[in-house]
Design a protein that fits this description.
heterodimer; A: 587 residues; mainly alpha; 22 helices; 0% strand; globular; B: 269 residues; 6-stranded mixed beta sheet; 4-stranded antiparallel beta sheet; 10 helices; 10 strands
Chain lengths: 587, 269
């Protein structure tokens, strides 16, 4: 029996250390995962370096704007820290949901005699690390650039002193907000709602940044209008925001800064604010956490929202004793009946209906669908600029058409890797059912392929036709583009499903994690090669059509045959190899 | 008198036949030459210490893992030649009740029925029948994430029985079941065997269950079958007439342990 009374502080330290060690220790990983991590680190470092040099270049331009240069830099710093704070808050809400309510080890910890303060401290530290490292990794190069361009040696110290409270404040607020949400919303649905709202928040933030069109900075006129836009903010971004306090403290160390008397006060406000937020979250933890956690363990309430929604639509859920059957004559909800009517009978339809249901009921999944819509929107929005490039004569229309095909293939590939590649892996723990069922593994693959193909064809065709329309291509080129999009969707989706079976991630907790794995990288590369190979067959026919030299059928027959053969190989080989891998798979 | 003794000797044609079944991981033989025959309409208890090879054997029968050697026949069908034909006749309940959390009970049964090629009407009728039998009639429309462990286990039983299997394989079926659920399971198992001629293999550590519902048993240790047949025959073979199954099990497995130890000593020498 441990004797904690006399050594409570020591005991707490032991608990805290072991809890943190269990969660944040470096893990032993297999070689493939180490390799993935290495690739990501190199990739991340390259991006961070790029951010640093771009930010240095841009800040240098801003700093040397006559008269208002230093002020402009201060404003930009203020805006940057505000964006970082907002992103950190969003990120912390998601992470705190996982740290405080969804983590698998919570069951054990809640049953153990760990004092609430220790549990909160450990979870909070873990949350700060998990939610902030990425924001910090990409924010740090920009802050470094500020110190480099406008700052003095003191600036680095100011950054080091102001960043920790800037990490703690959103973490504490995020944890507090999540605890309140989960304790007041109906149990498990709260987490879906939070995740969905946050993804929408991220997308809005992303779209806002995209619509500002940062590429305008490359143009001197655009830069001038941007400077006037930033300078037009006569008031600070918010005197009561911690990001403003931090910006003021850092900017005070810049060259030629007037030296504000309020700086020590703002530094004090930052640190005491962080302490107060932490204390507030800790108090809330003591007050509501046990009840909120308990609510997440109660499952039956989950269905209440569905029932209310069904009643509002005038379509009550089935009475006990009625098993609804999707398909041509089923009593399934409208959209599923339509899908069922078009889907072939057998395994394809079963998987299609099942996967669609899982997709729309999992908030983390349909938020990805919103992300997909945003991706297509941003792609088409940016594509307008290509037409301007063509109009200015810098790039020829034929080259633009081919670039459009390539970009459309790239987006199709990205969508396919995100949604088709994880389809085998997400069966994970349910493989026992699929393998014991009297269906061949190849049928499973074909069913998965069939279930994802129509959606991918629609995405590819929308992008191809819309970009051809934006570029003002004639119908013949549009048809060529649409054909390439169809073949690309066919090939790329089969490659994704096949590689998904060859390099599965059965232990991954979500489809997003599957797509981000080493297999996902391999799949992305293979699918890109496939898409480019199919696009390559369209180059000569596009040239003939564009210059009006399409007098003979032979080049089109040869290119079409080549594209069809490439697609057939891209469909058959991965599905065959994937089927063989699944055939040999042992559970 | 126990059920095992009562049913002893009842036999029909063979539903499951294992011949020289082996599974080797590296150099370690998890299953080392298992021979077993199981008649139609009988309930067999599959017993053994932890790591003895019970689950591996059952997983080979269901097709979840491939044997390194040997032959498996289900209702006369060689699983290596016609795996789908064999699977069509098997119902399987695994030791961990994983489900699609976002589907409802009805939808899960619909999906499973579809995989076994059942028609919608049959799925609805059979599904409802089994949901009622396992006291889940009020839960079919609820998402599976709201099911307790025992309810998941019962729903998986419904799914395993949906397509009227001729061979039902259950790995630790009693885990998580409440007394009522356990009683219902025992009733259903006996009913399936007695009235519908279904053969049932139960891998379990609950020896009372074997005594109450099984017609025969097989004890597996270190990948080998060390005893099999109706309880009375196993008792007789080990000069232990009237002995409780628990005591008999310990005697047989301890003897197997001693023999294995002696073999190691001899080979070292």
């Amino acid at each position: 029996m441990p004797e904690p009374v006399g050594h409570l502080a020591g005991q707490r330290a032991v608990w805290l250390k072991s809890l943190l060690w269990a969660k944040l220790r470096p893990e032993r990983r297999p070689l493939a995962q180490k390799l993935t991590r290495l690739v990501f680190i190199v990739f991340g470092l390259a991006i961070a370096t790029g951010i640093y040099f771009t930010a240095t270049w841009f800040l240098d331009l801003a700093y040397h704007v006559e008269v208002i240069g230093p002020l402009l830099c201060q404003r930009l710093l203020d805006m940057l820290l505000l964006v970082l704070l907002s992103v950190l808050l969003l990120s912390n809400i998601v992470t705190s949901l996982s740290s405080f309510f969804l983590a698998k080890d919570l069951e054990l910890l809640m049953a153990a005699p760990v004092p609430p303060r220790v549990l909160f401290g450990a979870r909070f530290a873990e949350q700060v690390v998990h939610s902030s490292w990425m924001v910090l990794a990409f924010g740090a190069p920009v802050l470094l650039a500020f110190a480099q361009v406008a700052g003095t040696p003191k600036s680095m110290l100011a950054i080091l002193v102001t960043i920790p409270p800037l990490l703690v404040i959103p973490a504490a607020l995020g944890a507090a907000l999540t605890m309140m949400l989960v304790s007041s919303l109906p149990a498990a649905r709260a987490r879906d709602l939070v995740v969905a709202l946050l993804f929408v928040g991220f997308i809005v933030l992303y779209l806002m940044l995209r619509l500002i069109e940062p590429e305008r900075f490359l143009n001197p006129e655009g830069f001038a209008s941007m400077v006037s836009f930033i300078a037009s903010f006569s008031s600070p971004t918010g005197s009561y925001l911690p990001s403003h306090w931090a910006a003021a403290v850092i900017a005070d160390t810049f060259r030629g800064a007037p030296g504000g008397r309020q700086v020590p006060l703002m530094l004090a406000a930052l640190w005491t604010g962080a302490g107060a937020c932490y204390a507030l979250a800790g108090l809330l933890f003591r007050g509501v956490y046990a009840r909120a956690y308990s609510r997440t363990q109660q499952g039956r309430k989950v269905a209440r929202l569905s029932r209310i929604w069904a009643r509002l639509r005038g379509r009550p859920l089935p009475a006990d004793g009625e098993i609804r059957t999707p398909g041509r004559h089923g009593a399934e909800s409208d959209w599923l009946r339509i899908v069922g009517a078009f889907a072939p009978r057998g395994a394809v339809r079963e998987f299609l209906i099942k996967d669609l249901k899982l997709l729309v009921r999992d908030a983390s999944q349909w938020s990805q669908l919103v992300l997909l819509a945003a991706l297509v929107f941003v792609y088409l929005y940016n594509f307008r600029h290509f037409r301007q490039l063509g109009d200015s004569g810098i790039v020829g229309p034929l080259a633009l058409f081919l670039v459009g095909l390539g970009l459309s293939g790239f987006v199709t590939t990205a969508v396919s890797v995100r949604f088709a590649y994880p389809l085998i892996s997400i069966e994970g723990r349910m493989l026992w059912l699929l393998i014991t069922a009297p269906i061949k593994p190849r049928q499973i693959l074909r069913a998965k392929w069939g279930s994802v193909l129509p959606a991918l064809v629609i995405v590819a065709e929308v992008m191809s036709l819309a970009s051809s329309w934006i570029l003002g291509q004639p119908p013949s080129m549009m048809i060529l583009g649409a054909t390439v999009a169809l073949l690309t969707a066919l090939g790329v989706s089969a490659v994704s499903i096949g590689v998904g079976a060859l390099m599965p991630e059965y232990r991954a907790e979500s489809a997003a994690k599957v797509a981000a794995s080493f297999g996902g990288l391999v799949c992305m590369s293979m699918a890109m090669v496939t898409a480019l190979a199919i696009v390559a067959w369209a180059v000569y026919p596009a040239y003939l059509l564009h210059y009006g030299k399409a007098t003979r059928a032979l080049p089109f027959v040869l290119a079409g045959g080549g594209a069809l053969l490439t697609t057939a190989l891209a469909v058959w080989l991965p599905l065959w190899l994937g089927g063989r891998a699944l055939d040999r798979f042992e559970l | 008198m126990s059920k095992v003794s009562e049913q002893a000797g009842k036999a029909g044609d063979c539903v499951l036949r294992l011949s020289g079944l082996r599974k080797v991981y590296g150099k370690f033989p998890a299953v080392d030459g298992v021979d077993l025959e199981m008649p139609r309409g009988q309930v067999y208890g599959f017993l053994g210490p932890n790591g003895a090879g019970k689950t591996t054997t059952l997983r080979m029968v269901t097709g979840l893992i491939q044997p390194s050697a040997g032959r498996i026949e289900v209702c006369g069908i060689d699983t290596a030649r016609d795996p789908l034909g064999a699977k069509q006749r098997i119902g399987f309940l695994g030791d961990r009740p994983f489900l699609y959390e976002k589907l409802t009970g009805h939808e899960f049964l619909r999906f499973v029925g579809g995989l076994w090629g059942m028609r919608s009407a049959a799925i609805a009728e059979r599904g409802q029948h089994w949901l009622e039998r396992f006291d889940l009639q009020g839960w079919g429309g609820e998402p599976l994430e709201s099911y307790s462990h025992g309810m998941r286990q019962r729903l998986l039983l419904c799914a395993a029985l949906l397509h009227d299997p001729q061979l039902l394989i259950m790995d630790e079926p009693m885990v998580g079941l409440d007394p009522r659920g356990a009683l219902r399971l025992k009733e259903v198992v006996r009913e399936l065997a007695d009235e519908h001629g279904v053969s049932v293999v139960l891998s379990t550590h609950t020896l009372d269950l074997v005594e109450q519902v099984c017609d025969g048993l097989a004890i597996i240790d270190r990948g080998k079958v060390v005893a099999s047949g109706p309880l009375v025959e196993v008792q007789r073979a080990h000069q232990a007439e009237g002995m409780r199954l628990e005591e008999l099990f310990l005697r047989i497995t301890e003897r197997a342990q001693r023999q294995a130890d002696e073999k190691v000593v001899a080979s070292d020498a």
